[in-house]
Amino acid sequence: MSEHGMGASVRRKEDYRFLTGNGHYLDDMVRPRQTFACFVRSPHAHAKIRGIDTSSAASAPGVIGIFTGKDLEADGVGPLICGWGITDKNGEPHKAPAHPALATDEVRHVGDQLAVVIAETLEQARDGAELVSVDYEELPAVVLPKNAMDASSPLVHADVPNNLCYDWELGDKAATEAAFSNAAHVTSIDIVNNRLVPNAIEPRAAIGEYDAGSENLTLYTTSQNPHVARLVLSAFNGIAPEHKLRVIAPDVGGGFGSKIFIYAEETVCLWAARKVRRPVKWTASRSEAFQTDAHGRDHVTHAELAMDADGKFLGLRVNTIANMGAYLSTFATCVPSYLYATLLAGQYTTPAIYCDVQAVFTNTTPVDALRGAGRPEATYVIERLVETAAKETGVAPSELRRRNMVAADAYPYQTPVIMQYDCGNYGASLDEAMRIADHTGFAARKAEAQSRGKLRGIGFSAYIEACGIAPSAAVGSLGAGVGLWEAGQIRFNPTGNVTVFTGSHSHGQGHETTFAQIISERLGVPFENIDVVHGDTDKVMFGMGTYGSRSAAVGGSALVKAADKIIEKGRKIAAHILEASEDDIEFADGNFTVAGTDKAMNIGEVAFAAYVPHNYPEGLEPGLNETAVYDPLNFSFPAGTHICEVEIDPDTGAVEIVNYTAVDDFGTVINPMIVAGQVQGGVAHGVGQALHEGCNYDENGQLITGSFMDYSMPRADNTPSVDIGYTSVPSPSNPLGVKGCGEAGAIAAPAATINAVVDALWDLGVHDIAMPATAHKIWQSIRAAKAAA
Amino acid sequence: MSVSVSMTVNGEAVSGNVEGRTLLVQFIREHLGLTGTHVGCDTSQCGACVVHINGTSKKSCTTLAVQADGADIKTIEGLANGDELHPMQAAFREHHGLQCGFCTPGMVMSAVDLVKENPSPSEQEIRDWLEGNLCRCTGYHNIVKAIKAGAEAMRG
Predict the structure, then answer these.
(1) Domains with residue ranges and CATH for chain B
(2) What does each of the 156 residues of chain B score in pLDDT, given as a tens digit?
(3) Which of A10, A15, A691 to mutate: most B Cβ within 10 Å?
(4) Nearest neighbour of B134 by CB, restricted to A20, A677, A708
(5) Residues 6+ apart with CB under 8 A from B42
(6) For the complex shown, is ipTM > 0.95?
(7) What is the pTM of this model?
(8) Which of A81, A338, A557, A562 is the S-S candidate for A734 at Cβ 3.0 to 4.6 Å?
(9) Are residues A38 and A184 in the same domain?
(10) Which residues lie across from B48 on neighbouring strands?
C-alpha cells in the first residue's frame, strides 16, 4: 500500500482551508451590488390568506422590491416539484397538491413563506418584512400523522381527501397471511419513529445573480446536488433554460440529506435576481432552518413477526403511517416506500413480507430524506421486533439473529421485497462485534453495575442498507424521475498534474482526498499533483450529487472508468514513442513500460506528448482528458452489527452509553480515517435520535422545538465514543468493491440503543420505550412499571 | 444611528461605523471580511462564532460590536503563525477532528482557550468544556482526541 493510495489514512486536502478560516461557504460570499432577501412567513399552522398589504414595507428605507406568489405566477414560475412518482394500491398516482414557492391562497405550516422583501441591507430587508401586513383567517390544523386520515380531521389540501397522499403496498399479502396462520409465536410492536430536524450546522443559503449582457443566471447555493437543482429549476420551475443557468455549490457545511432538495427560497432568490437586476442573497437563520429545512422520519408503525417453534422467521407484516408534512418535498414520496419497505427483509431469510404504507399530509414542515432515509426506519422496525421476539421466546438475541441470517454462501440472495443482495457475511460481523464488545463479560458487568444500584443493558442492531444509489433502469421502473448514474472526468494538464471533476458533491465527506487517492493509486500520479473539482455545473459535465452513501460506489467508479480510458490512450501514445506494439506496453505505478525491457515513459511524459504531439500516433486525438459515466449494476449493501451497552440510574432515569461497538462491512475501505469518522458521526446521529432528538408540534401545529434551546442535539458530553471494527466482502457491483459508509451509524444506532435501554429495564416490566428515551421518559416508565407490579 | 468602534483584530488596529444592534460577528464578517468566524444559530448555542476577546473565548454572535470597542480580538484567521498551523489546528487535522469544517473555527478557538485554562484536560473535562459548541458531522470523538493531542503539543 502506498502512502497516499487506497487503504491509507491520508490526511485531508480540505483541512488546511477549513482550519485557517479560508473555507468558502455560501454566506461568506459577497457579490458586487448584492441585495438581501427576507421572507415573510406564516405564524400559523394553517390559515387562509385574505390579503397581503405591502404598502408600508414598500416605502421603508432601502427596500427595493416586494414579491408575492402572484408575481411568481405572473412570470410563469412553476410550483416546487416532487420527483418520484408512487403508484398506489389501486394503480393510481400519488396525490401531488400544488406547492407554490410563495403561498397564494393558504399557508399550511408554521414558517410557510408567502412574500419576500428585497432590500439594500439585511437589516432593511428584515425591517421591511416586519412591515408586511398579512390578513390571515386561521383554519384548524392537523398535526399528528395517526390522526390525519380521520374523517373529522381538517384537510391540509382541499383536493386531497383524507389527507392521503398514497396508500401503497409491497410484498405478497396472501403468503404473509398464510405464514402468520402457521406461526408458533407472533411478536407485535407499535412504534413511532420520531421526527428529526436535520440541523447541518451551516444553515441553507443562496445568492441568485443575473447577467443582463449574456442573460445568464447563476445560483450559488448550499446544495448536495447542483446539477439536479439546475435541472429542476429549468425544466419544472421554468426559471431559465439549462444552458443559461449555472448552479454553484461551494464549500457546504454539512447536508445529511437536507440540502438535496430544491426549496422555495433558493428558487425565489434566483428568479428575483432577474426582477431586480442585482444579486439577491438569503441566508437562513437557525429559526428558519427549524421551520423550513425538510425534516426526517416521522413514522407510526404497527409490525408483527411470525416465527415457527424453532425461532425461524416465517413472515413479517408491517403497517406504517408516514408523515409527508404540508407539501411534498423533492424526494419525499420514495423515502417511506422504496427506501423503506424494500429493506424490511433486513439480514434475514424471512420468506414472506407484506408492508403497506399510508403517506399523509399534515400541517407541519415537509418531511424528506435525512441521513439513512427510510433505511433507519426499516432497521428500527426489524431490530426492535427481533429483540422483542428474543425476549418473549427466551432465545438469546444473538442466537435468534444468527438462526435467521442469510447464509454467507447464499448470494446473490433475492429478498421478497425487490432487493437482491449481492454479497455479505452477516454472521462474521455479528461475531466480530460480540468479540469487540466482550459480550461474554456482560453478565459480570451487569452484576457489578447492580451492586452500584445501576441498571445495565445490552442491545444489538444487525442492520442492512441499500446504498450506491442507484441503477438507473431499476429506479426508473420504481418511479424515479431521474437516472442515478454519476459522471467523472480526469484531465491531465500538459505539465503532468491532474484536475479531476466529479458530479458528486463533498460537504464533509472528504472527496477531495478520497478521490485523489483513487486516482493516485490507479494512475501513479503523486497525490499532491491531483486536485478534485466539484459543485459547479459549468465545470462538471453532469452529476447526480451526494446522498445515499453513493459517492464512492458510483462517483468513484466513474473515475475508475475514466482512469481506464486514460491508461488505454496513454498506452497508444507510449507504444508510438517507444516504438513498440501496443500489446507489449504494460502500465504500472505511473509508468508505461515495454514488457521485458527497461524502455519506459512515465504518465507525465505521456501527458506532455499528448499536448505537444510532435511525435504522435497517426489519427489519435491530441490531449489527455477522459470522461466516463458509471451506472451501477446494483445497489450496494453495507451491513453489520452494532452493540450498545448502557447504564441507567433508576432514581433519575439518566442513561449513560458505557460501550458502543460498531462492526460494519463497507467492502473496500479507501481511507480508514475518513470512514471511521463517518461511522462516529453516523452513530452520534442515531444515538441522538434514540436518546435526545425529537421534533414536536403542539396540537395547534406550533413548532415547540424551534431552536437549539428546545431541540436537544447530541453534544460532546452526551455522545459516546465508538469502538470500530470491520469485516469485508467487497461489493461485486462496482469496480472499487466499495459499499458506502455515510449512513450506517444513523441506521444502526437507534435500534441498538433502544434495545439496550429496554434490556436494562425489561426485568422491571418495561418492554418498550419511545424515542427519544429521555431521562424523564425512562423515569416515568420505571415508576409506571413499579406501580403496576 | 451609526456608532464608531475601534479594536485590535489579529494584531491589526481596525475601526468602523456600525449600528447599535450590529453584532461583533457581523462586524468581523461583513465589515472586516474575515469570514472564518461562522454563524450557525440565533440563540447562542452552536459556538461556530467563538473568537477570543481579550484572550478569552466568547461567542461573537452574543456580543455587540460596540461592546468590543477597544478590545483585543483574535479570530481563526489570526491563530496560525504564517503558514505554520497552530498546534491545535494541526491536531485537528492529524486526528480528523473536522468534516464539513463549518463548526471548526469555533471548536478550535474554544479548545485553545480551554488549554489556557487547563493545560492538561481529561477527556471528560474536554467534553464538558465543549457544551457550547455543536458539531453535526463528527460525533465529537475525533474532536476530543484532537484537543487532547493539541493540548499536549501546546504544552510542548
Answers:
(1) 2-78 (3.10.20.30), 87-155 (1.10.150.120)
(2) 789 999 999 999 999 999 999 999 999 999 999 999 999 999 999 999 999 999 999 999 999 999 999 999 999 999 999 999 999 999 999 999 999 999 999 999 999 999 999 999 999 999 999 999 999 999 999 999 999 999 999 998
(3) A15
(4) A708
(5) A285, A286, A287, A707, B61
(6) yes
(7) 0.97
(8) A557
(9) yes
(10) none
